Amino acid sequence: MDTLFHWVVLLRDVPTADVKAGDRAVIVDLLSPASTEQKAGYTIEVFRQGETVDVVSVPVSWVRVLPETWGQREISMIEVS
User: Fold this and answer.
1) CATH number of 6-80
2) Cα–Cα distance between 35 and 26 in angstroms, integer?
3) What are the distances in angstroms from CA 63 to CA 7, 43, 76, 80, 81?
4) What is the pLDDT of residues 10-60, one digit of tens each?
């Protein structure tokens, strides 16, 4: 699954930022594992009440990817018919 611009929920606090478990964010970059890292990661833009809180990089295992993408407009069945 291509996860770029998907919404995520943080599963843990980010110790170096004001980003907490339960915050919602959007994936803005996909990070390959560095030479010292075994796991890939994401750069995410974290939001609270519609405002950007921070942009941080976290391991993939620190987030749960949601099916919604940023800017996606839900189309109701009424609009389709």
Assistant:
1) 2.30.30
2) 25
3) 10, 11, 28, 33, 36
4) 999 999 999 999 999 999 999 988 777 678 899 999 999 989 999 999 999
Distance separating alpha carbons of residues 75 and 73, to the nearest angstrom: 6
DSSP 16: T
Is residue 16 within 8 Å of residue 36, measured between CB atoms?
no
Domain boundaries, the chain: 6-80
φ and ψ at residue 14, rounded to 5 degrees: -95, 110
Q: Provide the token pair at 24.
A: 């919602």
